[in-house]
Design goal:
The protein has 283 residues and is an alpha/beta fold. Helix content is 39%, strand content 12%. It has 9 helices and 7 strands. It has helices at residues 9-33, 38-55, 79-89, 129-142, 161-172, 193-196, 202-208, 221-229, 267-277, and strands at residues 70-73, 149-154, 178-184, 187-188, 191-192, 212-217, 239-244. The protein has a 5-stranded parallel β-sheet with strand order 1-2-3-7-6, sandwiched between helices. A two-stranded antiparallel ribbon has the order 4-5. Helix 5 links the parallel strand 2 and strand 3.
Length: 283
């Protein structure tokens, strides 16, 4: 297990400000396209911000660097959150976000590795991201490479059995270069996850599959920084970070409401969100 360094409070505050801007840009992008998945994008933004601005070994100028860390957004319907994060990180101009979901755009409704630098895998059908991530982590192990693999999964997505097949494989090969982050916002399309399929005790379930598990507040950047600095949580085991989040986090009209799984903000709601986030649109 790694020794966890003291978290830089100034870095955490910087990440919080970046996340506010990413949320505002995300909302504008969805509004322009009149489609998207705002709820799960807002809940995942703090995790994505922390990864791309403080954790991942990536370089926008060299997106295919063989020594880079790999990140996979398994909950691919939250693509706008990834696109906006990549844009703020310099992988593409912010202005390109205005093309989201337009004919011939590189910014599809789900991420496409073949069209956009920084996207490591095509995702969309739920339950596919973790199996791909396990394969990548195993490849790194077989090649004796030091890069790591991070994969963000939705909690509703865990109802797909392919995740647990992949989890068994990860523990069998002792892939401690793999980090699974669960966006535990408690809501899936149409309802709360507890009304669809109960998941608790979620931490114990991951532990039973051989993962070293840590539960964190997925909206506290200091907690996220500390958690990512601690991976692998246990040497010889894949890590699972259960990030407890709020669907629609950051905008009052969307928080913890199943309807905002794929809601689209109106012009008036954009103004309200801008006031709440304290950030105007950048483009």
């Amino acid at each position: 297990m790694m020794t966890v360094p003291q978290v830089d409070t100034h870095q955490a505050e910087k990440l919080r400000k970046i996340a506010r801007s990413i949320r505002r840009t995300d909302l504008q992008t969805v509004h322009n396209a009149q489609l998207g998945h705002v709820g799960g994008e807002m809940s995942a933004t703090d995790t994505l911000t922390t990864l791309y601005f403080a954790v991942l070994k990536v370089d926008a100028a060299k997106p295919n660097d063989p020594e880079r860390d790999r990140f996979i957004l398994s909950k691919g319907h939250s693509a706008v959150a990834l696109y906006t994060t990549l844009a703020h990180r310099g992988f593409m101009p912010l202005e390109q976000l205005a093309t989201f979901a337009q004919p011939l755009s590189k910014l599809n409704g789900h991420p496409d590795h073949n069209k956009l630098p920084g996207v490591e895998a095509n995702t969309g059908p739920l339950g596919h991201g973790l199996p791909i991530a396990v394969g990548m982590a195993l490849a790194a192990r077989m090649k004796n490479e030091s890069w790591r693999v991070f994969v963000l999964v939705g909690d509703g997505e865990l109802q797909e059995g392919s995740n647990w097949e992949a989890a068994m494989c990860a523990q069998h090969y002792n892939l401690d270069n793999l980090v699974v982050i669960v966006d535990r916002n408690g809501i899936q399309q149409g309802d709360f996850t507890k009304n669809t399929i109960r998941m608790e005790p979620l931490a114990d379930r991951w532990a039973s599959f051989g993962f070293a598990v840590k539960e964190i507040d997925g909206h506290q950047h200091s907690a996220l920084l500390e958690a990512f600095a601690s991976v692998p949580v246990e040497n010889g085991k894949p890590s699972c970070l259960i990030a407890n989040t709020i669907k629609g986090k950051g905008v009052s009209f969307a928080e913890n409401k199943p309807a905002w799984h794929h809601g689209v903000p109106t012009r008036e709601q954009l103004k309200l969100a801008a006031a709440e986030l304290g950030v105007e649109v950048e483009w």
